[in-house]
Amino acid sequence: MFARSIVKAVAKPGFRPAAAFVAPLTRATFSTSVRRSEPEVPVVSYESGQRVEERINFPAGQSGPVNPPGGDQTKSARPLGADAAKHLTPTLSKFTLPGKVAVITGGGRGLGFNMAQALSEVGVRGIAILDVQEDLGDNAARELSEQTGVDVRFYKVDVRDGLGINQTVQDIVDHYGALDVLINAAGIADSNIKAETYPHDKFRRLIDINITGTFLVAQAVGNQMIASGKGGSIINIASMSGSIVNYPQEQSCYNASKAAVVQLTKSLAAEWARFGIRVNSISPGYMDTALNRVPALEAQKRIWVDHTPQKRLGDADDLNNLAVYLASEGSAFMTGNNCIIDGGYCLW
Ligand SMILES: NC(=O)c1ccc[n+]([C@@H]2O[C@H](COP(=O)([O-])OP(=O)(O)OC[C@H]3O[C@@H](n4cnc5c(N)ncnc54)[C@H](O)[C@@H]3O)[C@@H](O)[C@H]2O)c1
């Protein structure tokens, strides 16, 4: 048996999308004030194998804002009107998803919710949000439906629960009669944990969510896409941590999990190309979401920003257009690709 609940949110006839910014219902709890006057930051380095802890001066105001004002705020989505769609050029119309159905894990907030909004702005008719946090997923479904009129369903399900995921995906197909796009955004992060003392249960939990969960959802959705004979697009949210080792925080498990997501993406892309399924990954750099808005990371964020050529964290909607591109016919010949979108962090 598995625990699962569904919330369906369909806008009432005659609804009008909200024009103003939507209040960030779930962010307040996670916001922390920016301590710009902090004169020093802790740094950990290794010299000839010896671990060295030091503090370096980091003059305030030299590295750009750590948390840009409003960076993680959710903006209101607007649907693409039928009239507007008719006037798009052939190139622009390839970036739309008319009548498509999308599944988004971790869509209750953050990058997943922002990408759900983006898909709802380019013609998607149905979106299923899968998230383990009921209050977040429920709010997200309601907001999305109110803003765009898209038929949104929320499933409270854990991506580690294979049985629950299979049943959820079957219910999505039964309801919408199709399933065209999957964005695998559910994930967790552990950082500042040394490899020497990494607790085994913590390590296994993160791997189970970030890589096994990504696989279980991809498998369930992939099987439906194969059965439909129409293929589809799967987008896995990896991280630049799958390609580089972050500094200064120690986070071996997260880095390894995201490298595995990149390699899983390539493997599935190769196996499923014959079914018309494209599989790509997005590897974000440091993004300004609740995942990073925790007091323990405030000092380190100054280093992250300083090591980013664009001198800022990514906004929560900075992946949106790439997600639309990868989901749409615009990227028809792209599969197995890992797209790094990081303000240039990996260049240095
Ligand atoms: N924020 C960043 O800087 C950053 C950078 C690179 C990659 N990423 C990746 O992007 C993805 C989204 O990150 P975010 O910043 O939006 O995080 P977030 O914490 O704001 O959102 C993640 C969502 O996933 C859900 N979730 C977590 N575990 C789950 C589970 N077992 N089953 C179902 N849902 C679950 C959470 O409830 C939450 O709603 C993650 O995979 C993360 O690793 C984030």
From TrEMBL:
Gene3D superfamilies: NAD(P)-binding Rossmann-like Domain
Catalytic activity, EC: 1.1.1.138
Residue numbers spanned by region Disordered: 58-78
GO molecular function, one term: mannitol 2-dehydrogenase (NADP+) activity
Lineage top rank: taxon: Eukaryota
GO biological process: mannitol metabolic process
Alphabetical UniProt keywords: NADP, Oxidoreductase
Reactions listed under catalytic activity: D-mannitol + NADP(+) = D-fructose + NADPH + H(+)
Keyword Nucleotide-binding on entry: no
Pfam families, sorted: adh_short_C2
PANTHER family for the chain: SHORT-CHAIN DEHYDROGENASE_REDUCTASE SDR, SHORT-CHAIN DEHYDROGENASES/REDUCTASES FAMILY MEMBER
Family in the record: Belongs to the short-chain dehydrogenases/reductases (SDR) family.
Protein name, entry field: NADP-dependent mannitol dehydrogenase
Organism of origin: Recurvomyces mirabilis
